[in-house]
Amino acid sequence: MILVVTNRKSCKDDFLVRIEAIARRKPYGILLREKDLSKEDYLELARSCQSICETYQVPLIVHSYIEVARELKIKAIHLPYDRFVELGGELQGFSEVGVSIHSKEEAKVAEQKGATRLIAGHIYETTCKPNLEPRGLVYLRDIVDTVNIPVFAIGGITFERIKEVESVGAEGICMMSMLMSCPEEKLNLLLK
Protein backbone atom coordinates (compact mmCIF):
# COMPACT_ATOMS: atom_id res chain seq x y z
CA MET A 1 0.00 0.00 0.00
CA ILE A 2 1.24 3.45 -0.83
CA LEU A 3 0.51 6.44 1.37
CA VAL A 4 1.23 9.58 -0.63
CA VAL A 5 2.88 12.41 1.31
CA THR A 6 2.59 15.80 -0.34
CA ASN A 7 5.22 18.45 -0.90
CA ARG A 8 3.91 21.14 -3.19
CA LYS A 9 7.36 22.78 -3.39
CA SER A 10 8.78 19.77 -5.23
CA CYS A 11 5.77 19.51 -7.55
CA LYS A 12 6.82 20.37 -11.09
CA ASP A 13 3.30 21.06 -12.33
CA ASP A 14 0.14 22.53 -10.82
CA PHE A 15 -0.19 21.01 -7.35
CA LEU A 16 -3.94 20.37 -7.50
CA VAL A 17 -3.63 18.83 -10.96
CA ARG A 18 -0.97 16.50 -9.50
CA ILE A 19 -3.21 15.63 -6.52
CA GLU A 20 -6.03 14.80 -8.95
CA ALA A 21 -3.70 12.62 -11.05
CA ILE A 22 -2.58 10.77 -7.91
CA ALA A 23 -6.09 10.40 -6.45
CA ARG A 24 -7.36 9.00 -9.77
CA ARG A 25 -4.94 6.08 -9.24
CA LYS A 26 -6.43 5.32 -5.79
CA PRO A 27 -3.52 5.18 -3.33
CA TYR A 28 -4.12 4.11 0.28
CA GLY A 29 -4.40 7.79 1.21
CA ILE A 30 -3.00 11.27 0.66
CA LEU A 31 -1.28 12.93 3.62
CA LEU A 32 -1.37 16.70 3.14
CA ARG A 33 1.97 17.60 4.74
CA GLU A 34 2.34 21.28 3.90
CA LYS A 35 3.85 22.31 7.24
CA ASP A 36 4.98 25.77 6.15
CA LEU A 37 1.45 27.07 5.51
CA SER A 38 -0.53 29.21 7.93
CA LYS A 39 -3.68 27.60 9.31
CA GLU A 40 -5.82 29.69 6.94
CA ASP A 41 -3.78 28.78 3.85
CA TYR A 42 -3.66 25.13 4.89
CA LEU A 43 -7.45 25.14 5.34
CA GLU A 44 -7.96 26.54 1.84
CA LEU A 45 -5.61 23.96 0.30
CA ALA A 46 -7.12 21.12 2.36
CA ARG A 47 -10.61 22.09 1.21
CA SER A 48 -9.52 21.84 -2.44
CA CYS A 49 -7.72 18.54 -1.85
CA GLN A 50 -10.69 17.15 0.07
CA SER A 51 -12.97 17.82 -2.90
CA ILE A 52 -10.57 15.96 -5.20
CA CYS A 53 -10.12 13.06 -2.79
CA GLU A 54 -13.86 12.68 -2.26
CA THR A 55 -14.37 12.48 -6.03
CA TYR A 56 -12.01 9.48 -6.20
CA GLN A 57 -12.91 8.05 -2.77
CA VAL A 58 -9.35 8.36 -1.51
CA PRO A 59 -8.84 9.30 2.16
CA LEU A 60 -7.31 12.71 2.81
CA ILE A 61 -5.21 12.82 5.97
CA VAL A 62 -4.59 16.17 7.65
CA HIS A 63 -1.07 16.76 8.97
CA SER A 64 -0.89 18.56 12.34
CA TYR A 65 -3.79 21.01 11.84
CA ILE A 66 -6.36 19.40 14.13
CA GLU A 67 -8.69 22.42 13.91
CA VAL A 68 -8.69 22.18 10.11
CA ALA A 69 -9.51 18.47 10.22
CA ARG A 70 -12.40 19.14 12.58
CA GLU A 71 -13.71 22.05 10.52
CA LEU A 72 -13.68 19.94 7.34
CA LYS A 73 -15.00 16.87 9.20
CA ILE A 74 -11.96 14.84 8.18
CA LYS A 75 -11.55 11.88 10.53
CA ALA A 76 -7.89 11.12 9.76
CA ILE A 77 -5.04 13.07 11.34
CA HIS A 78 -1.27 12.64 11.36
CA LEU A 79 1.08 14.15 13.93
CA PRO A 80 4.76 14.30 14.74
CA TYR A 81 5.49 12.22 17.84
CA ASP A 82 6.13 15.16 20.21
CA ARG A 83 2.93 16.92 19.21
CA PHE A 84 0.95 13.67 19.60
CA VAL A 85 2.25 13.18 23.16
CA GLU A 86 1.69 16.85 24.01
CA LEU A 87 -1.97 16.65 22.92
CA GLY A 88 -2.71 13.71 25.16
CA GLY A 89 -6.44 13.05 25.05
CA GLU A 90 -7.40 15.89 22.72
CA LEU A 91 -7.83 13.59 19.72
CA GLN A 92 -11.35 12.31 20.35
CA GLY A 93 -13.45 12.02 17.24
CA PHE A 94 -10.66 10.90 14.90
CA SER A 95 -11.01 7.40 13.51
CA GLU A 96 -7.39 7.38 12.30
CA VAL A 97 -4.48 8.84 14.22
CA GLY A 98 -1.12 8.48 12.55
CA VAL A 99 2.14 9.30 14.30
CA SER A 100 5.68 9.74 12.98
CA ILE A 101 8.12 7.82 15.17
CA HIS A 102 11.88 7.35 15.23
CA SER A 103 12.46 4.63 17.86
CA LYS A 104 10.93 1.49 19.38
CA GLU A 105 10.18 3.44 22.55
CA GLU A 106 8.23 6.07 20.62
CA ALA A 107 6.38 3.33 18.74
CA LYS A 108 5.31 1.65 22.01
CA VAL A 109 4.16 4.91 23.59
CA ALA A 110 2.28 6.00 20.46
CA GLU A 111 0.41 2.70 20.31
CA GLN A 112 -0.40 2.79 24.04
CA LYS A 113 -1.73 6.35 23.73
CA GLY A 114 -4.09 5.54 20.86
CA ALA A 115 -2.21 5.82 17.56
CA THR A 116 -3.82 3.69 14.86
CA ARG A 117 -0.93 3.89 12.36
CA LEU A 118 2.78 4.71 12.52
CA ILE A 119 5.16 6.16 9.99
CA ALA A 120 8.71 5.01 10.70
CA GLY A 121 11.74 6.53 9.07
CA HIS A 122 13.81 7.41 7.47
CA ILE A 123 14.72 4.00 6.10
CA TYR A 124 17.07 4.82 3.21
CA GLU A 125 19.22 7.78 2.33
CA THR A 126 17.05 10.65 1.15
CA THR A 127 17.55 14.14 -0.19
CA CYS A 128 14.94 15.35 2.33
CA LYS A 129 17.33 14.56 5.20
CA PRO A 130 20.78 14.77 3.60
CA ASN A 131 22.82 14.96 6.81
CA LEU A 132 21.05 12.20 8.74
CA GLU A 133 22.11 8.57 8.58
CA PRO A 134 19.25 6.31 7.41
CA ARG A 135 17.88 3.89 10.01
CA GLY A 136 17.57 0.90 7.66
CA LEU A 137 15.55 -2.28 7.41
CA VAL A 138 16.66 -3.77 10.76
CA TYR A 139 15.22 -0.71 12.50
CA LEU A 140 12.01 -1.04 10.48
CA ARG A 141 11.65 -4.72 11.38
CA ASP A 142 12.16 -3.84 15.07
CA ILE A 143 9.34 -1.28 14.89
CA VAL A 144 7.01 -3.71 13.11
CA ASP A 145 7.77 -6.40 15.71
CA THR A 146 7.19 -3.97 18.59
CA VAL A 147 3.62 -2.88 17.82
CA ASN A 148 0.30 -4.36 16.74
CA ILE A 149 -0.78 -1.45 14.53
CA PRO A 150 0.14 -0.82 10.87
CA VAL A 151 3.61 0.60 10.23
CA PHE A 152 4.39 2.52 7.05
CA ALA A 153 8.01 3.11 6.05
CA ILE A 154 9.25 6.48 4.79
CA GLY A 155 12.47 7.87 3.43
CA GLY A 156 14.25 7.14 0.18
CA ILE A 157 11.83 4.42 -0.86
CA THR A 158 11.88 3.88 -4.58
CA PHE A 159 9.74 1.56 -6.65
CA GLU A 160 12.60 -0.97 -6.67
CA ARG A 161 12.73 -1.04 -2.85
CA ILE A 162 9.05 -1.67 -2.16
CA LYS A 163 9.34 -5.48 -1.95
CA GLU A 164 12.39 -5.15 0.32
CA VAL A 165 10.42 -2.92 2.72
CA GLU A 166 7.38 -5.19 2.64
CA SER A 167 9.59 -8.23 3.34
CA VAL A 168 10.25 -6.96 6.89
CA GLY A 169 6.53 -6.67 7.63
CA ALA A 170 5.70 -3.03 6.91
CA GLU A 171 2.05 -2.51 6.07
CA GLY A 172 3.00 -0.10 3.33
CA ILE A 173 5.25 2.70 2.23
CA CYS A 174 5.13 6.46 2.07
CA MET A 175 6.27 8.20 -1.09
CA MET A 176 6.75 11.91 -1.47
CA SER A 177 9.46 13.33 -3.72
CA MET A 178 9.13 10.82 -6.53
CA LEU A 179 5.33 11.15 -6.76
CA MET A 180 5.43 14.93 -6.61
CA SER A 181 8.01 15.33 -9.35
CA CYS A 182 7.83 12.38 -11.76
CA PRO A 183 6.20 12.66 -15.20
CA GLU A 184 2.48 11.88 -14.89
CA GLU A 185 2.77 8.72 -17.01
CA LYS A 186 5.16 7.28 -14.42
CA LEU A 187 2.41 7.54 -11.77
CA ASN A 188 0.80 4.47 -13.35
CA LEU A 189 3.91 2.45 -12.60
CA LEU A 190 4.37 3.83 -9.09
CA LEU A 191 0.73 3.66 -8.00
CA LYS A 192 -0.32 0.33 -9.43
Describe this structure in words.
There is one protein chain. With 192 residues, this protein is of the alpha/beta class. It has a single domain (2-190), classed as Aldolase class I (TIM Barrel). The chain contains nine helices and eight strands. It has helices at residues 15-24, 39-56, 66-71, 81-87, 104-112, 136-146, 162-166, 177-181, 184-190, and strands at 2-5, 29-32, 60-63, 76-80, 96-101, 117-121, 151-154, 172-175. The protein has an eight-stranded parallel beta barrel, surrounded by five helices. The protein is globular and about 40 Å long.
Full CATH superfamily name: Aldolase class I
What number of structural domains do the residues give? 1
Strand content: 15-25%
The end-to-end span amounts to 9 Å
Q: Sheet with the most strands?
A: 8 strands, parallel, barrel
Could you give a short description of this structure?
With 192 residues, the chain is of the alpha/beta class. The chain has nine helices and eight strands.
